[in-house]
Specification:
5-stranded mixed β-sheet
Length: 293
């Protein structure tokens, strides 16, 4: 576990005068006393309302940080940061929330709003996945276990291209989407196949989302191929590079003719599926006597 004292080793700017301003006060405040200043606050649009409903549906004080406010006229407090979670608390019937109060002028309020919302460090999918694993959340442990059953690793962080290896899955959202649309056993078999197949088990490029997802989804659409003896030897002959080049050429031609490009994922998925059908036609059961063909 990292210590917060590590920050002391950072090279901070020299010669900058330290002026923190008024010290904040922590206090529970009735929601009725909290106001939103439209001169600098963002309006509540559809996406904001969706976020509020999501917070309310999963409301927990363990996930509620103090609302950042400033005193204004009439004994009210203007919300600088925390509008969404305050609305969510109100929707849950809560009448007061913990607040961090800092006296500020209107100009300072607007500057604080810009600073708080502009300097936010975006949380990556890997960080969300890693935290969800630590919390034992089902979606995260399930995704990890499916990858592991296939002989792969669902990564908790990114690496440089040179450091990445076959079998390492970096597309967290992509992999979870695949899990949502296909049977667990089929995904596991597809991963095991890739780990056994020459070309896939030694070429990291094929594990990038652009190649990985359409290939895995095409295999899941044809699970009968997993039972074909030595299928991986034939599968290794499939030329994804040629497919990609042909799709790119077709899209350039479409652009010259004034047509929109076709989705590369869908096109590659269809190419792989067509290759499977051409080389390994699906064995369909013959109709029983008396049944229509």
């Amino acid at each position: 576990m990292n210590s917060w004292r590590e920050i002391e080793r950072l090279d901070l700017p020299k010669g900058v005068e330290f002026s923190p301003g008024s010290a904040p006060i922590l206090q529970w405040i009735k929601i009725d006393l909290l106001v939103v200043d439209d001169s600098y606050q963002r309006p509540l649009e559809r996406g904001n309302r969706t976020a509020i409903r999501k917070i309310a549906a999963n409301f927990s004080w363990a996930m509620f940080s103090p609302v950042f406010v400033a005193p204004v006229e009439g004994g009210k407090y203007a919300i600088i940061d925390g509008q969404h979670r305050t609305h969510a608390a109100a929707a849950c019937g809560i009448d007061q929330v913990p607040c961090q109060i800092v006296p500020m002028t209107l100009r300072e309020q607007a500057s604080a709003f810009a600073a708080v919302n502009g300097n936010v460090t975006r949380v990556t999918p890997w960080q969300i996945y890693k935290a969800a694993l630590a919390a034992g959340e089902g979606w995260a442990t399930n995704a990890r276990d499916i990858a592991a059953a296939g002989g792969c690793i669902l990564m908790t962080g990114n690496r440089s291209t040179k450091q990445k290896k076959p079998g390492e899955i970096y597309g967290i959202r992509m992999f979870c989407d695949v899990i949502a649309h296909h049977e667990r056993g089929h995904i596991v078999e597809a991963l095991r196949l890739l780990m056994r197949t020459e070309g896939f088990n030694d070429t990291q490029d094929f594990w990038n989302t652009g190649f990985f997802r359409p290939v895995v989804e095409a295999l899941c659409a044809r699970p009968d191929v997993f039972t074909i003896k030595d299928f991986e030897e034939g599968f290794a002959e499939m030329d994804l590079w040629t497919f990609e080049a042909e799709i790119a050429a077709a899209n350039r031609e479409r652009q010259r003719e004034g047509h929109p490009s076709l989705a590369v994922f869908e096109q590659l998925f269809m190419r792989v599926l067509e290759w499977l059908e051409e080389n390994y036609p699906e064995q369909r059961a013959l109709p029983k006597p008396g049944e229509a063909a």
